[in-house]
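Quick review question:
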């Protein structure tokens, strides 16, 4: 679990290396393929990531400064604001996988929401960014 995890700097460096290994970014962290992150809210990338990078004296790569907030996308798609990921799952009749706020489980659940929206014809585009 978390207490046995590597420190943030190590994980951040390994993540960037994985992006290079999968040909998403070059050696200078410039995107070489089209990709973006999808989140359920702006908290993690707009608030937490900048604070954590500042604490660890890490520069935030450009590709992490713009993303898709699925809550905003859903609101644009349906004209109603979702309060939570649980709300979105209930709206689409998705049975939750795992534990709420478990990083990997939230990813599986968020991908199921995104699939449903795509099936309804929604075309995602970046809608959030760091200032």
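Suggested answer, residue by residue:
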């Amino acid at each position: 679990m978390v207490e046995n995890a590597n420190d943030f700097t190590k994980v951040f460096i390994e993540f960037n290396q994985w992006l290079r290994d999968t040909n998403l970014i070059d050696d200078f962290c410039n995107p070489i393929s089209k990709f973006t992150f999808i989140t359920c809210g702006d908290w993690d990338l707009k608030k937490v990531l900048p604070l954590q990078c500042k604490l660890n004296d890490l520069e935030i790569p450009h590709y992490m400064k713009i993303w898709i907030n699925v809550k905003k996308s859903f609101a644009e798609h349906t004209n109603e604001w979702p309060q939570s990921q649980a709300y979105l799952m209930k709206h689409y009749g998705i049975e939750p996988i795992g534990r709420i706020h478990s990083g990997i489980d939230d990813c599986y659940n968020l991908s199921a929401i995104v699939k449903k929206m795509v099936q309804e014809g929604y075309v995602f585009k970046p809608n959030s960014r760091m200032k």
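Why it works: Residues 100 and 106 are 6 Å apart (CA to CA). The mean pLDDT is 93.
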